[in-house]
Amino acid sequence: MTSPVRRRQILGIAAATGIGICLAPLARASEAKTLRIGYQKSSTLITLLKTWGTLEKRLTPGGVTVSWHEFTSGLPLLEALNVGSVDVSADVADTVPVFALAAGARLIYLAQEAPSPTAQALVVQAGSPIKSVADLKGKRVAVTKAAGSHYLLIALLEQSGLKFKDIEPAYLSPADGRAAFERGAVDAWVTWDPFLAGVQRQSQVRIVSDGRNIADYQRYYLVSTPYAQAHPQVLNIIYDELRKTGAWVKQNPKEAAGLLAPVWGLDVATVELANSRRSYNVRTVAPAALAEQQKIADAFFGEGLMPKKVNTTEIVIWKPAI
Question: What is the DSSP secondary structure assignment for residue 281, as one 8-state letter?
């Protein structure tokens, strides 16, 4: 019997090669005509590629155009990917794919960013009586459903001896979550960068806990199965540009913040703070790196927040062409 790890490798190679067309010329990607990329505000590297027009420059000679589609958060983005409204998803938090898989989505893991545990956190108002996670019992907490911060909240509660049912969750988008937090409609807010950096610099807040030693926060790039099988060379180009752009951001923090600030509607210092907490180290997904995906899925299922169990040995991993 083929081992689960070996099965993932075989499936990943099959998806990447498109059944023997891995080395096909880029011209064959012209059959795609339009590459539809979904992204969200926190999609730093995709935002830069969009701003620069990098993918258009590389793909246009092969007859491929690019269209961009913005989403408020990761879950609706992957829902769009699953139903075929977009072809490639910019980075989403590590929690989001397991929800999509539980819903029966057929997705391929294109790449991941190395851990960035401090890029998400639980915050309270500076004068709040909440001093520890244990103090959240009975409190109303704003969180975006299926976001990485959702898992961080569950993990923090478990570590403090609480269950998710011990709090009153308010499922809100990042923008609505901040609004509710600042007007006092919720007692705490769990969010991620750049929203975290924004509220830190513009409001009087206190971080109760971030993800260090509890949630790695590895962000994933995904692609629909049909697109991956039909257009592997387009994926090779996307992966190549993501890696280069991630390295550039870390090497040029001030310049990167200057480019992103007007796009995000934030000041340069806020963007630089947010970027300092993200690794932006894009890499292919190793089977061993999916251990936390299983842990996340089990945590949500255990809390009754996921409709069925997810087996991460069935995840399909994309491999770049050599």
Answer: -
Q: What are the tens digits of pLDDT across the range 79-97?
A: 999 999 999 999 999 999 9
Looking at residue 61, its pLDDT comes to 94
Question: How far apart are alpha carbons 83 and 104 in whole angstroms?
Answer: 11
DSSP letter at 61?
Answer: G
Residue 73 Cα distances to 52, 133, 144, angstroms: 23, 25, 8
Phi-psi domain of 291 (left: phi exceeds 0; alpha: psi -120 through 50; beta: other): alpha
Between 13 and 152, the more confident residue is: 152
Closest C-alpha to 38, from 75, 11, 9, 63: 75
Q: How far is CA 97 from CA 37, 81, 297, 320, in A?
A: 16, 11, 9, 20
Q: How many residues can be counted in the chain? A: 322
Cis peptide before 194 (omega within 30 of 0): yes
**3-state secondary structure at position 187:** coil
CB-neighbour burial class of residue 233 (10 A; exposed 0-12, middle 13-18, buried 19+): buried
pLDDT tens, residue by residue, 153-203: 999 999 999 999 999 999 999 999 999 999 999 999 999 999 999 999 999
- The helix or strand, by DSSP H or E, that contains position 67, with its residue range, turns out to be strand 65-71
DSSP letters spanning 200-269 = HHHS-EEEEEESTTT-----EEEEEHHHHHH-HHHHHHHHHHHHHHHHHHHH-HHHHHHHHHHHHT--HH
**What pTM was computed for the model?**
0.83
Cross-strand partners of 67: 36
| Integer Cα distance of 257 and 44 in angstroms | 10
